[in-house]
Amino acid sequence: MSKGKDDPNNTIAADNRKARFNYHIGETFEAGIMLTGTEVKSLRGGKATIGESYAGEKNGEIFLVNAYIPEYLEANKFNHVPKRPRKLLLHRRQVDRLTAAIQREGMTLVPLKIYFNEKGRAKVEIALAKGKNVADKRETEKKRDWDREKSRLMREKG
C-alpha cells in the first residue's frame, strides 16, 4: 500500500513545536532541501531535530543552519556530518524576497517542520518570523490556558 495524503503518520521527520511560541509567524514557504543519501535514510527514521536551527542567506542562496540529522548507523564510513549547513531549494524570486525581508525588516527564517511529500521528496516548511518578547510569550500562555479551561467547562456543561 502506498503512502498518500491520508496516511495517518503523514511522514513528518522533524517538527519545531517551540517556534510558534517564540516567534510571531508570518508567511510560510515550502522548500526542497539538498541531502545526501545517508541523510535521507536517517530522516526516515524520524530522529532529526530542528529546535535550534534557522535559515540564513549566503552568496545569494538560502541555507538551513544547525539542523541536526543523526548519522545513519548502517552507512559506516560513507556517513554525513550531522550539523552541516544544507542548501534550501527555492525559486529566485522567493530567495530575493526572503533576503530582503531578513535584511530590511529584521525578520528571521525559522524552519517549522521537515517532512516527506506524496512523491517521497524531503521538504522543509520555513516561515518568516519576528521574535516575541517576554510579555508576548506570557500573553500566549494565558490564552492557551484560558482556551484549555474553556474547553473543560464546555465538556462539563454539555
UniProtKB/TrEMBL annotation:
Gene Ontology molecular functions: RNA binding
Could you tell me where this protein is found in the cell? Answer: Cytoplasm
Specify where the region named Disordered lies, as residue ranges: 133-158
**A Pfam entry, by short name:** SmpB
Per its UniProt entry, which superkingdom is the organism in? Bacteria
The record's Gene Ontology cellular component field reads: cytosol
- Family (UniProt): Belongs to the SmpB family.
What PANTHER family does the entry give?
SSRA-BINDING PROTEIN (PTHR30308:SF2), TMRNA-BINDING COMPONENT OF TRANS-TRANSLATION TAGGING COMPLEX (PTHR30308)
The function of this protein is: Required for rescue of stalled ribosomes mediated by trans-translation. Binds to transfer-messenger RNA (tmRNA), required for stable association of tmRNA with ribosomes. tmRNA and SmpB together mimic tRNA shape, replacing the anticodon stem-loop with SmpB. tmRNA is encoded by the ssrA gene; the 2 termini fold to resemble tRNA(Ala) and it encodes a 'tag peptide', a short internal open reading frame. During trans-translation Ala-aminoacylated tmRNA acts like a tRNA, entering the A-site of stalled ribosomes, displacing the stalled mRNA.
Tell me what this protein is called. Answer: SsrA-binding protein
Name the source organism. Alsobacter metallidurans
The UniProt gene name for this protein comes to smpB
